[in-house]
Design a protein that fits this description.
Helix content: 25-40%
Radius of gyration: 28 Å
Number of domains: 3
CATH class of the largest domain: Alpha Beta
Shape: elongated
Largest sheet: 6 strands, mixed
Structural class: alpha+beta
C-alpha cells in the first residue's frame, strides 16, 4: 500500500483535526446526522436466535421478533463502561435504548461516518453518574471534517480493505493465544495428575474424574494437609492502592486472577480504621478467590514473600499448609488445573452468574493427587519452566495485538482527517456506499 498526502491543506480551526485538505468542510456533527437512542427492550424479549438482531451499547445482544430500523447505520454506545464505542447494523434490526442510531442528514458513506466517529474517541465526553453515559446534545455540537461524498466513499473503501487485513492479523494472534492457553493448561494438568515420567506404572486413583495416577502417588483430600483456612474482611476502603511495603491496604479479589499473586491489587485502608494485623499475608500463603464469576471463582495463587501490611479481604480464603506434606506452590497450581477447575465450577453456587461462591468445604474436600514430597519441588520447577516459555509466547502475541490495534486506530485517524490521500489506492475493491 502506497499513500501520500493531499496536494494542499488549510487550517481546520479544530484542534484535534489540525490541517485538512482543501475542498473539505468543517460542520457541526448535528447538522450532518441525527442521533437518537433506540427503544427499550427487556431481557425476556431477547433470544439467542431469532429473526431480527438486537443491538445494545456494546454491540449485538441477541435476537427478537420485531425491528425498529431498516438500513445501514453506525451505532454509538450510549451508556456503560464502553460508552462511545462504534458498531454497525445493517438490514432490519432492533436498537435498544443503550444504542444511539446515527442517521445521515446529508449524503454520507456509513462506513466513513462510523470510522470518523470512532476516531473521535467519544467516550471522553461521557458524563459520570451511576454509570458513564453520553450526552447526545454535547457530542452533536462537536465539529467534524466533511469531505465530498466521492472522497467519503474512497475513504470507506480504503478503510474497509486495510482494517480488514489488520483485523485478520489480530484474529490470527488471538487464535495463537487461545492455542497457547490450551497448551499451558494441558501441560499443567498432565504434570499434576500424571507426573513427568510417562514410563512409570499407573494405578486407579479411586476418583472417577481423576482417572489413573502414578503408582507411588497418594490421592488425598486437601483438608488433610491444611493447617488453617481463614476468610478476611472488607471495610469501606479508598479507591487507590497502597505501596506494597507501606501503609495498610486490603487486597482485592482480583489479586489472584491468572494464577499469580498481584500485590498491587489492593485498596488503601482509611486512616480512621484500625487494621487487623492477623489478616496480613505471609510467604507461602495460598490465596483463593471465594466469590467471583464462575470462570474466576476458585482462582488461586501462592504468595512468594510476606506482605504484612496487605490484609485479607472477605472474598478471599487464606490457606496455610503443612509444607512437609504438600508444597504450597503445587497446591495453587493444582487448583488452577483443568481437573480441579471442573470440580470447583461444578460446586460453585449463586443465583447470579456474575457472582458465585465456593464454600470452604469445596476446597477442603477436593481430592488431590500428591507425589512423594521429594518429587514435588522438581514437579513445580518443571511446570514453572514450561509455563514461563508459553507465557513469553503469549506476551509476544499480546504485544502484536496491541501494535496492530494502534496501527488500525492511527490509519483510521489519518484517513478520516485527510492526513493521507487514499483516492484510487484500492481500485480493485468495490467502493463502500
Amino acid at each position: 500500500m502506497s499513500v501520500s498526502a493531499y496536494p494542499a491543506y488549510k487550517d481546520s480551526g479544530v484542534e484535534w483535526i489540525g490541517e485538512m485538505p482543501l475542498g473539505w468542510k468543517i460542520i457541526p456533527l448535528k447538522y450532518v446526522v441525527s442521533m437518537k437512542s433506540g427503544e427499550q427492550i427487556t431481557a425476556e424479549h431477547i433470544e439467542e436466535s431469532g429473526e431480527y438482531p438486537v443491538f445494545g451499547g456494546n454491540g449485538l445482544r441477541g435476537y427478537t421478533s420485531a425491528f425498529t430500523h431498516d438500513g445501514h447505520f453506525p451505532l454509538i454506545g450510549r451508556q456503560g463502561a464502553l460508552c462511545g464505542n462504534i458498531n454497525y447494523a445493517t438490514g432490519k434490526f432492533w436498537a435498544s435504548e443503550h444504542a444511539v442510531v446515527v442517521s445521515p442528514r446529508l449524503p454520507c458513506a456509513p462506513l466513513w461516518l462510523g470510522e470518523l466517529l470512532r476516531s473521535m474517541d467519544l467516550g471522553q465526553y461521557s458524563v459520570t453518574a451511576a454509570q458513564p453515559g453520553l450526552s447526545v446534545e454535547a457530542i452533536g455540537n462537536l465539529r467534524i471534517p466533511v469531505p465530498p461524498t466521492d472522497e467519503q466513499s474512497a475513504i470507506a473503501t480504503f478503510l474497509d480493505h486495510e482494517t480488514g487485513k489488520i483485523d485478520a492479523l489480530v484474529a490470527e494472534q488471538e487464535r495463537l493465544m487461545a492455542l497457547l492457553k490450551e497448551k499451558r493448561q494441558a501441560v499443567i494438568s498432565q504434570a499434576v495428575t500424571k507426573g513427568l515420567d510417562p514410563s512409570v506404572p499407573m494405578r486407579d486413583s479411586g476418583v472417577e474424574w481423576l482417572g489413573d495416577v502414578p503408582k507411588d502417588w497418594r490421592v488425598i483430600r486437601i483438608k488433610h494437609f491444611v493447617q488453617s483456612m481463614d476468610q478476611g474482611w472488607s471495610p469501606q476502603c479508598e479507591n487507590f492502592p497502597v505501596d506494597t511495603g507501606q501503609n495498610w491496604g486490603v487486597l482485592k479479589v482480583g489479586c489472584v486472577n491468572g494464577g499469580s499473586f498481584s500485590p498491587h491489587e489492593n485498596k488503601a485502608l482509611p486512616a480512621d480504621l484500625v487494621p487487623l494485623p492477623d489478616l496480613g499475608i505471609a510467604a507461602d500463603d495460598v490465596l483463593i478467590s471465594r466469590a467471583n464469576t464462575r470462570e474466576l471463582v476458585g482462582s488461586a495463587a501462592c504468595v512468594a514473600e510476606a506482605y504484612p501490611n496487605l490484609l485479607l479481604c472477605d472474598k478471599l480464603y487464606r490457606v496455610r499448609v503443612d509444607s512437609s506434606a504438600c508444597n504450597p506452590r503445587l497446591l495453587a497450581i493444582y487448583l488452577g488445573s483443568k481437573v480441579a477447575r471442573g470440580r470447583i465450577e461444578l460446586e460453585a453456587s449463586g443465583a447470579s452468574q456474575s457472582m458465585v461462591n465456593i464454600a470452604q468445604s469445596t476446597i477442603l474436600e477436593l481430592a488431590m493427587p500428591l507425589p512423594p514430597t521429594i518429587k514435588q519441588e522438581a514437579l513445580v520447577g518443571f511446570i514453572d519452566r514450561e509455563t514461563d516459555k508459553i507465557d513469553e509466547l503469549m506476551a509476544g502475541a499480546q504485544r502484536s495485538i496491541v501494535l496492530l490495534t494502534e496501527r488500525r486506530a492511527a490509519l483510521i485517524s489519518a484517513a478520516v482527517t485527510g492526513k493521507i490521500d487514499v483516492r484510487g489506492v484500492v481500485p480493485d475493491v468495490q467502493q463502500a456506499a
